[in-house]
Amino acid sequence: MTAPAAGTPGLDAPEPSAKPARRMRSPRALAQLTPWLRPYRGALIFASVCLVGSVAIMLAFPAIVNSLLDAAFQRHDSGLLDRVALLLVALFAVQGVLNFAQVYVLSSTAERVTAALRDRVFAHLVNLSPGFFTDQRSGDLTSRLSADLAVLQSVLNNQAAEIARQVLFLVGGLALLTLTHTQLMLTTLAVVPVIVGSAVLFGRRLRRASTGVQDRIARAMGMAQEAFGQIRTVQSFNREGVEASRYAGLMREVVQAAIRRARIRAMLFGVVGFVAFAGVTAVLWEGGRMVLANQLTAGSLVAFLLYAIFVAAAVGSLASLFGSYQEAIGAAQRVFEILETKPTVPEPAAPAALAKPVRGEVVLDRVFFRYADDLPYVLHDVSLRIAPGEVVALVGPSGAGKTTVASLLPRFWDVTSGSITVDGVDVRELRFSDLRGAIGMVPQEPALFSGTVRENIAYARPGESAHPASDEDVRAAARAAHALEFIERLPQGFDTLVGERGVKLSGGQRQRIAIARVFLKNPAIVVLDEATSSLDSESERLVEEAMGDLLRNRSTLIIAHRLSTVRRANRVVALEKGRVVEAGGHDELLARDGLFARLYRTQFAGAEQSE
């Protein structure tokens, strides 16, 4: 059978990874935050009222100063002077309470919103298809969880309130300037077009520069995390200096991008600050001439100048905050790109039920698969049946497609065409929890977490699961995996920390803990990606004993590299270039003198002699 043509409905291969969504325009980027703020609208309204009250007091300050100065210099009324001074003290006390309430409420809200965003981004990431992570550096994803969300947190924490405060100062100041003296107001407004134009011109450049800085930081973090994860390889090849130079080069790019951002921000702040306070100077000069001409009292001039300073300071602050706003847009784009990324292998809209108990029959029916439309097919017309309780060994040269078959069964990827069924139900119609709950996987390199031995075994049934594992369950799983003896010899037994990726344990010990985890899961189907291929003979013997118990009465697919594994199988299937070329019993395939016989002579014969 030939491969289906590209473009055939329902037969095209999914992309190997979900690419982040296209970057959104800035208003939409920040608008995405609205649903996250909605649960706290009561607190935000309260904080807004406090903010408006605080700004109102400050805007009343110049008018009160006007009365104070006129009382002192024109009326010579000491009683009025005392009352005005006491009023100012009382107002500033009220303002202090309002500022405290506003800052506390906004800060606590920002912490909750940011934490919820981090939770959502992480939960979304771990639910994306495994192929997504093949095109993404973990450091970049970590940067979005940390650095980008830290920028958003800073905006929510204080910068959003400060922008609102300065906008109120600007609008209120302009309104009161107009009421105080229209002619001086026109002089003040002459600088507004220059300020707005500068903010628009530099703001766009600043947003692009800020996004560039975040992208370069993410690349540097990704490179560092990769080097740390492969530290033994780095040191064994004496590449410490090279890796340090690579990181230094990436950091130089970060610094250069940050300096460009700083230059743009400095130009924006400098131009706007100069224009704003030049306007204040012009107002001071024109107002002074009016005082000399007895057209304006000294108190009115001081009040007007204070309002003008409020307006100028607000404009200057908004120019600076506009830079932070642009940085927040860049960070929001990177965060919400992740949240808008869809899994390439989705959950079914109307999932079918998998009958309990699961019998474990697995059928691959004319399966074709390729990782992307522009890549060649990895599997060609593969058909295979694993009966309930049967052990099938999958053999073949490197690149034959063995691991791909094992990855398609739990739907890490979806078939391009054909089907895979478990107990007669297409895996694409099953919930991930039902499908993957029925499958236990033991990889060639077991993945352990940097917790205790107990936590790693209990990972199959954690405390928050429907049936959490008890200490006795964990102990029984370790015993079944022939791991109890070495665990009890560890310094803290089951509470011994295994280190990152289990580096404090030997390969055989890590493998037996991984097998114990599968024992605890108790799946109907087991997939083994040759769990003994990199072990010494003693560790292999112990792991083989554990696997012998694990496979009993379970449907099993084994990626086989060693003779002992092949002998355990009821049936052997040989793959070559993504096609099934042979299938049958061990002795039957040897007698045919085909691919399996050749593999046996080249890969397994030496192992047989050593045994």
3D structure, described in words:
The protein has 611 residues and is an alpha/beta fold. The chain folds into 3 domains: 27-340, ABC transporter transmembrane region fold (Up-down Bundle); 353-438 and 525-611, P-loop containing nucleotide triphosphate hydrolases (Rossmann fold, 3-Layer(aba) Sandwich), CATH 3.40.50; 442-522, 3-Layer(aba) Sandwich (Rossmann fold), CATH 3.40.50.300. The protein contains 20 helices and 10 strands. The strands form 2 sheets. A 6-stranded mixed β-sheet has the order 6-7-8-3-9-10, sandwiched between helices. A 4-stranded antiparallel β-sheet has the order 2-1-4-5, with helices on one face. Helix 5 (138-180) packs antiparallel against helix 6 (182-189) and helix 5 packs antiparallel against helix 10. The model is unreliable at 1-26 and 607-611 (pLDDT under 50).
